[in-house]
Amino acid sequence: MRTHSAWILKSAPEPEEDVRLPEMLDRLLDRLEPVTTTLWELEQEGYEANWLGLMDVRDGENATELPRSLLQRLIALPGDLWLDVYRDDEPGHAGERSAK
Question: What is the tens place of the pLDDT at every residue in 47-68?
Fold first, then answer.
């Protein structure tokens, strides 16, 4: 019997250079809001959810805004929002782009 498993939904198949976190969360919410009841039922059965956002910064120059309307949509679903903020030139970071 497995004690842990993961389901991962992505807002896009690959990282997108100029797409901000609010747009990515909006895409995921559009997919998950129709099954809100099911998600809450899964949480009541012991499943856990979280929202992970990877945010790269370049010399501290990037910022993002999460509008209240987006936060209200997030609150309607189970899970906490986790933000992983890193410099985009950090070697070996999960957000590092592969050389092409």
Answer: 888 888 877 776 666 678 889 9
